[in-house]
Design a protein that fits this description.
0% strand, mainly alpha, elongated
Length: 133
């Protein structure tokens, strides 16, 4: 019975991991695409006080980070860097928007992204942790 419960827990964890990782990565890929092709996204970077090159740089790193989280052959250490980088980007986005007076309607998406990232990270570690007998 214990082994069956463990298998169910691991299956639930795996579903939660892939769901949150997939949703988070989709959010990052959509925002990266917007940074590159949507004029309003470029205007938002100007409004936040960032230089134009930062928008391109951030888009490239979001694409690379999403790939690192989604591709199975990527080493764990690289995934850890991707998680760390995304955490910094999300916290920085929250600070930047709050600093210019953007309200909770802007923060909602950022907080959802942080929740997805945190859940992905926690479940990633649950499935990569050594099994306890």
């Amino acid at each position: 019975m214990h082994k069956l419960n463990h298998q169910l827990d691991m299956r639930t964890n795996q579903i939660l991991y892939w769901s949150t990782t997939g949703l988070f990565s989709a959010m990052m890929l959509m925002s990266a695409t917007a940074y590159l092709v949507v004029p309003q996204a470029a205007e938002a970077f100007v409004r936040l006080g960032f230089p134009a090159y930062f928008r391109i740089e951030l888009a490239v790193f979001k694409i690379l980070g999403a790939a690192a989280l989604l591709l199975l052959m990527v080493p764990g250490r690289v995934k850890e860097w991707a998680y760390s980088g995304f955490a910094v980007v999300i916290v920085s986005a929250l600070i930047a928007h709050a600093a210019i007076g953007d309200g909770p309607e802007t923060w909602a998406g950022i907080i959802i992204a942080m929740g997805l990232l945190a859940t992905s990270y926690i479940t990633y570690h649950k499935q990569t942790a050594p099994a306890v007998a």
